[in-house]
Specification:
The protein is α/β, with parallel strands linked by helices and 241 residues long. The chain contains 10 helices and 8 strands. The protein has 2 domains: 52 residues, no CATH class; 188 residues, Glycogen Phosphorylase B (Rossmann fold), CATH 3.40.50.2000.
Length: 241
């Protein structure tokens, strides 16, 4: 059995999986698709209508409770000079739009609906900040490891994220991301504002994040780890274990 994070692995064992036969293998990411690109960045920002000097934060995922997007809308409402793009659709789409309106930021929060992988890549190129405010929801649901985390790291886009699920096992606070507690609007807003005000910090975090992905989470590396896991599984089977 494979799991994309330690957290998901622990949950699998709690449900009866054999820990000796469990491999923790985070998701891979295409570092050629998700990459920095100055020309495409400028083009996408123009298409989105982002004014010069405005900080752009981007997030992507299903609009459901475990993504924590309501806390992100509130965080953006608490600070100035930041626009937020949310790519995705889901059952909370209407509620999130209403929340942006009630917080007075409907003009600063752009809902794009579902986007292709190529469009998400361009959004991350355009972004000054990627935000992943994931939470363990009231039913106990949490992402193992959101794809957008790996995509943001590969893009070299400074990441603000919670440690929910497997995120905390992939990123390191102050080096490859700014990590904030779940459901903490003040901390989330402060981290976004910090990157807004310190571009050099953002460049440092983004560069370290991309290096991490290229060294450890490129598809070639991850495929090798999966192949090793399959070899182990076959060995267990042939030995009768």
């Amino acid at each position: 059995m494979t799991a994309c994070s330690d957290d998901l692995g622990r949950r699998a064992v709690a449900l009866g999986a054999e820990s000796a036969r469990l491999e923790i293998i985070p998701y891979g990411v295409d570092g050629a698709r998700f990459r920095p690109d100055a020309a495409l960045r400028a083009e996408k920002r123009r298409a989105l209508g982002i004014p010069e000097g405005t900080t752009l934060a981007v997030t992507a995922g299903r609009l459901v409770a475990k993504k924590g997007f309501e806390y992100l809308v509130d965080a953006v409402a608490s600070i100035s000079g930041v626009r937020l793009v949310i790519a995705g659709d889901g059952t909370l789409a209407g509620a999130l739009r209403q929340r942006a309106n009630s917080r007075g930021v409907s003009d600063r929060v752009i809902f794009l609906g579902n986007q292709t992988q190529d469009e998400v890549a361009r959004l991350l190129m355009a972004a000054d900040i990627a935000a992943v405010p994931s939470v363990r929801d009231d039913s106990g649901n949490v992402d193992g490891l959101p794809n957008v985390v790996m995509e943001a790291l590969a893009s070299g886009t400074p990441l603000v994220a919670t440690p929910a699920g497997g995120i905390g096992s992939v990123v390191e606070h102050e080096r490859t991301a700014l990590v904030v507690p779940e459901r903490d609007v003040a901390a989330l807003g402060a981290a976004i504002a910090r990157l807004r005000d310190d571009p050099a910090l953002g460049r440092s975090i983004g560069a370290a994040a991309r290096t991490l992905v290229l060294e450890q989470f490129g598809w070639g590396r991850v495929a090798g780890r999966l192949e090793h896991a399959y070899d182990r599984a076959l060995a267990f089977k042939s030995s009768g274990s």
